[in-house]
Amino acid sequence: MSSRNPSYTNPKPCKHLEDYKLRHGLSGYKSIQRHLKATPHGRTSVEMLNTGVPRCNSCNGFQGRLYLCLICNSVSCLDHTLLHTQSEDGHDLAVDIERAELYCCVCCDQVYDPDFDKVVMSKHNMGVPRDDKHGDESIGERLVKRRRLGLGVAEELVDLKKSKQLVSMRDRRDKSCYPLGLRGLNNLGSTCFMNSVLQALLHAPPFRNYFLSEGHNHEACRRRSGDRLCLSCDIDVVFSAVFSGDRAPYSPAHFLYSWWQHSANLASYEQQDAHEFFISVLDGIHEKEDKSRNRNRDSGDCQCIAHRVFSGLLRSDVTCMTCGSTSTTYDPCVDISVDLDTSNFSPTDTVNKRSKPNENSSISTLLGCLDLFTRQEKLGPEQKLFCETCQEMRDSVKQMSIRRLPLVLCLHIKRFEHSPVRKMWRKIDRYLQFPFSLDMTPYLSSSIVRNRFGNRIFSVEGDESDINTDFEIFAVVSHSGTLESGHYVTFLRLRNRWYKCDDAWITEVDEEIVRASQCYMMFYVQKMLYQKADEDLSSLPLSPRRDAYLPIASC
Amino acid sequence: MFGVRRMRPSVNRPPTPDVQENQEKEPTLQETINIKLIESGEKERLMELLRERLVECGWKDEMKAICRAFIKKKGRNNVTVDDLVHVITPKGRASVPDSIKAELLQRIRKFLVSAAL
């Protein structure tokens, strides 16, 4: 059981709330239920009078916060609320009229009660989730027009001199003391896009474990299906070669050929997009599995290794801004494509202009990108959607969230933008700050949906306290260069050390190098699986930097 | 005896209200505008617009940061919502960007013109 962040647990009721509940139960809440008014923005307020302005019973004031006593239904401003509780015994609990939130007049503080929030939430039309199967299409395919990032010669590093120094230092060490499974991949002609993704797949713990433990059996596979084309078989061959202990660079020629057969449209020596390759490989693995499996298993999740490792579920909520009703759809995904979080504040409005600058606003961060991905997005006037309740085309707000996290989370950073002036796409070379340990809790559907309604305690679909939200990064695929001419490398994190996989060359590097690179695909794995993978590797001798060097008899 | 008019206390007479002045004065201009804004629903729209702008410009994040710092200093269990409101109200009011104030004033003016006040 992971130690949860205390701010995510429900606050305990105060003594006065408990007493109130014992004495009055839910009657007070129910009595104001019909006076609650919900707005399409997720807010709720209390409307006692049919028209007009709520005023304090004692002083007729209407400014500031007004409270409705739950016992006698009198409305008072804050000062008179406190006087009221002193003069009337037991009139401790009140409701903030503008916000529909509970207030304890004795503690002088806001209090929370799931029963109260249930009454409040009953006013919001949450909508019925439609089980919309869009197939195994990645969200990336639908959201973005992906561009090809190619390979090239020039490699940009932030501190070129320093990094070259570090690289040359590492070269002198004996490579045979590297962790098992580190082997260079030869470039077969603009195939760095393939090599980089392969390196990440080779070290994705659940994916690696499946293949290394004979998860895919060649003979059984050939017997089951007549045709020889099977990407899983070919990947299995690559795994065997890379984890054999042989450190000479390996040429994944057969795998490349097989992949060409599968993705005929991408079969060429041209520059390719690594993300596109990643999707097509997973698709190829899945397709073969689908063909050989019993077709009747339509319900339930696909059990092919690609989906078992990478498949998650995204939730999309579309809210009508007129009536507030929400329609929810769920779509499976094998990765999440996020836009770069660039601060687009207009100079006159920004908070930064003042004495205390907000330190995070000028750097792009991965968390910022995820915030952007899960923010409430106003759909423009041309994007009006049909609202079932209003029976009309309405302005809407869309919000994405993650319903189910995969074992391995692949985050695709969309490093390209379209310039309408120049009528072309170009790459965004921008530093992205990212954590090595990532807690995905704030991006789950339960968190996002809950936040939409302010300070409410209520359960959301998928609210399990024991789901794993802690992730550790293990691979980063970085791109250097331009859209037309660039180069991919992969940084692997094994036993808390970083290794740069640049086609045939594997070198140990400092984490600054990784951080300075233009990360394009980030691979995170659930923390427990990362720690277990670490243990598997620990049984091997370490490099001379730490312990005495021991020759490896067999790997 | 017959010429003298005596006011007999009526049992149905409501109790004397606490504060009498406000009920007898004419509503101020501010009150009138506020009432009109609320009754027409314009106030709610303005509030939503204001919320949106304050989030966009980072004001909300700044207030959150101030609250967090205050809570850290005092300890989580020693802080009430009222404390936080008292702490951030002056800072919050002072740090609203002028452009947002201008935009809202403009909206209110437009509304008043259309409501023919």
Automatic annotation (TrEMBL), chain A:
GO molecular function, one term: cysteine-type deubiquitinase activity
GO biological process: protein deubiquitination; proteolysis
Subcellular location: Nucleus
One cellular component (GO) term of this entry: SAGA-type complex
A matching Pfam family: zf-UBP
InterPro entries assigned: Papain-like_cys_pep_sf, Peptidase_C19_UCH, Ub_carboxyl-term_hydrolase, USP, USP_CS, Znf_RING/FYVE/PHD, Znf_UBP
Classification via SUPFAM superfamilies: Cysteine proteinases, RING/U-box
Zinc-finger keyword on record: yes
Record bears the keyword Disulfide bond: no
Residues covered by the USP domain: 183-527
Keywords: Hydrolase, Metal-binding, Nucleus, Protease, Thiol protease, Ubl conjugation pathway, Zinc, Zinc-finger
Gene3D superfamilies xref list: Cysteine proteinases, Zinc/RING finger domain, C3HC4 (zinc finger)
Domain named UBP-type: residues: 31-130
Its EC number(s): 3.4.19.12
Reactions listed under catalytic activity: Thiol-dependent hydrolysis of ester, thioester, amide, peptide and isopeptide bonds formed by the C-terminal Gly of ubiquitin (a 76-residue protein attached to proteins as an intracellular targeting signal)
Record family assignment: Belongs to the peptidase C19 family.
Protein name: ubiquitinyl hydrolase 1
Naturally occurring in which organism (per UniProt): Castanea mollissima (Chinese chestnut)
Automatic annotation (TrEMBL), chain B:
UniProt cross-references to InterPro entries, sorted A to Z: TF_ENY2, TF_EnY2_sf
Record Gene3D superfamilies: 1.10.246.140
Region (Disordered): 1-32
Transport recorded as keyword: yes
GO molecular function, one term: transcription coactivator activity
GO cellular component: DUBm complex; nuclear pore; nucleoplasm; SAGA complex; transcription export complex 2
The organism's place on the tree of life at top rank: Eukaryota
HAMAP family per record: ENY2_Sus1
Subunit-level organization: Component of the nuclear pore complex (NPC)-associated TREX-2 complex (transcription and export complex 2). Component of the SAGA transcription coactivator-HAT complex. Within the SAGA complex, participates to a subcomplex of SAGA called the DUB module (deubiquitination module).
Protein name (record): Transcription and mRNA export factor ENY2
The organism of origin for this protein: Castanea mollissima
